[in-house]
Amino acid sequence: MLRYTASFVALAVLPIGLSHAASFDCAKTRSKPELLICGDPELSRLDDELALIYAAAKAVAPD
């Protein structure tokens, strides 16, 4: 359990290499929330972090 917690913490503070990229394709976005995320570098970075944390949690969660 501690190993998984450490993984989540590591991913939460992992610096995102792309300075302005959401976890989805901004060229195809249509919804207001997606437009807001794509238009704001900080929201985009936070969206990337959340996507990484979600993927890590999904990888260790039982089906």
Describe this structure in words.
- With about 60 residues, this protein is mainly alpha-helical.
- It has one domain (about 1-60).
- The protein has helices spanning about 1-10, 30-40, 40-60.
- Helix 1 (about 1-10) packs antiparallel against helix 3 (about 40-60) and helix 2 (about 30-40) crosses helix 3 (about 40-60).
- The longest helix has 20 residues, at about 40-60.
- The protein is elongated.
- Mean pLDDT is about 80; it is low at about 10-20.
Task: Describe the protein's topology.
Layout: H1 2-12, H2 32-39, H3 41-60
Helix pairs in contact: 1-3, 2-3
How many helical elements? Answer: 3
Judging from the principal axes of the Cα atoms, what is the shape? elongated
How many domains comprise the coordinates? Answer: 1
The overall average pLDDT, rounded, is: 79
Number of strands: 0
Rg over C-alpha atoms, rounded to the nearest angstrom? 13 Å
Please describe the biggest sheet, giving its number of strands, its sense, and whether it closes into a barrel.
none
Structural class: mainly alpha
Helical content stands at: 55-70%
Low-confidence stretches: 9-19
What portion of residues belong to β-strands? under 5%
- What is the straight-line distance between the termini? 17 Å
Order of helices and strands: HHH
